[in-house]
Every structure is written in C-alpha cells, then in structure tokens.
Amino acid sequence: MASDEEKKLEVTVSSEEVAAAKAEIDEEDDDEDVAAAGEFEVTKEEMSIMRAELACEFPDDYTYLSDAYVKSVASKPYSKDPTVRRPIEYTLEKLTHVMEWRETNGAPELESLVHLANGPETATEAVEQPEKLTKAKALVYSLNNASIYWHGVTKQGKPILWIRCGRKPWYPNVEAEVNALVLIADAGIKCMPEGVTDFVVVSDSNSPPPPVPSFMINVLKALVRGYPDRLNVLLSAPVGSIIQFVMNLLLPLMPGRLAGKFLLKDLPDATEILKEWLMHGEDDIPTFFGGKCDHDKYYPEEGYSKNRGQGTLKFDYFGMIERLQASAKEWEEMQKE
C-alpha cells in the first residue's frame, strides 16, 4: 500500500508547461554568473537619470523601487563583459521589465483588494464591482490560513518570510495563491530597513500538501521576473520526498545563481543556522523549529483566527506590517550603537 507521501506525489507535470516556463525564464534572465563578481560605483547623476525615467514611465508605482535597490541593480557587472558595469540603458531595461510585470499582474492594486475584502459587502465598491469583490475574497482566503507571513529580520537586517507548508491547501486556487505571495512579498519589501534590498525565506516543510506544478512554476516565474535579486537565501527543513520532488522540478528551470540560494537541511542543522541568522539569535527561533518564539500568537491557524473587520479577512495582515516595521526600526537603531 502506498504511503501518504507517495500518494501526494501522484501528480502529473505537463512537459509543454515546463518547456514554456524554461523558455520564459531563460529569456528574462541573462545575468546568471555575474552577480557574485562585485559591484561598481553608480553616481548621483546616474541615479537621478534612472529615477526620473522610472517616474515618467510608471508615475503611480515608481516609488516601489527604493534607491538602494535601483543602485544595487545598476552596480552589477555587465553580463556581456563582467569587467565593466551594466550600462544605464541596460539597467533601465531590466527595471522596466520588473515594473511592466507588476503592471501586467496587477501587483500595485493587490493591497486595495485586502481593504475591499475586509469591509462590508454592502460597500459601494463591492456592490458595483462584484468581480473585483470575488477576486478580493479569493485573495484573503489564501491569506487566512497564515501559511506565509513576515516576522523579524536577520542580523543583516533582511526581512524573514516564513512559509508553513503544512497549512497550505491540498487543492489551491493557483491564481489567488500567487496573488497572495506577491502581495506579501511587496509588503515585506516596502518595510525593508534603509539600505537593505533583499530578503530571507525560511520554510517549515513538515507535512506539505501534494505538489501543484502549475503553482510552483508560476511562483518561480514571479520570482525571476518580478523580484530579481530580491531572494538572498531560502532555508527549508526538514527535507522529505515532496520537497525533493519540488526541487527536482524547479532546479532545471532556475537560473544558476538562483539555484545556489536554496538550502535543504534537517531540523538540527536548520536550528543551528537560524541561531546565526536571526537578529536575536536563539531567542527568535520559532516553536515549530524547536525554539521558544511563538509565531502562532500572531499567526494562528485559520480556525483560531477572528475576522479583522466587517468582511472575510482573518489573517492579521496589517498587524504583520506594523511588527515588521518595528523590527526594521529596531535593527536600524542597533546599527547606530
């Protein structure tokens, strides 16, 4: 008789979907090996030129890209000649692709959907735009299980995105799940301490649901196209057959420099790594990794959550942002000591 893990792996992956994803990712990413080659100077004048161009092209969303991130992208070696810096035109092209991806995928409007779903269904917007309300409800339903959230920063000030795989649904609404991830990612990026441009992901990979290839491939495409150079490292523990299946599917699709950012560890090794990473060391290790920091106090399972407003939002989205802002401020103050 097949084990529960084996049953969960009874999924099919479309070769056409994988090939299309590979082609799309390869077309978008041509800086595979230059990120580790160092950085070059970017002048104030060059920064002003790039900011002005982005503000002109994307007046409603250009502030999403911080000066630190724009400078980080511009300072990288040029893929065609790593001995020189990326030309300004090339950097603007890459940043424009990010902003176009955000526009196409509706990223700037996602937080407004949270507000809509958190209000009464009798609100004017909800009544006049029922399709928008339906999308908003689907988004917050994906948030309500508290399977992804920001909590705390590392010793380097990088926000930490926690993934609770055991809380993920077996039969997800793929579009809503991807939207939820984009919404959460944007919230964390906006809360980054001054000068920080990337984040860390820690995955509690106990009891994951059956893998959904279309969801995983869409997440990877979003990471490459919408969040280049944002992921610093992803730590996943423990490593079972489902996580191995996921990595075997995604690794061949990943740019080389992204593949090197995934750490698959057992629980004891992961705990030691977290001691080194987390701002308060061992005190910040969550209970589900054998520590004493109770994340469930803020992010309980849906059955223990209450509605935040007059609508369907149960996940403490706005509290999460406040806590992350407080952690970022605490880290900034520590740098002054």
TrEMBL record:
Transmembrane segments: none annotated. It comes from Stephanodiscus triporus. This is CRAL-TRIO domain-containing protein. Residues 147-291 form the CRAL-TRIO domain. Pfam families: CRAL_TRIO (PF00650). The lineage of its organism: Eukaryota, Sar, Stramenopiles, Ochrophyta, Bacillariophyta.
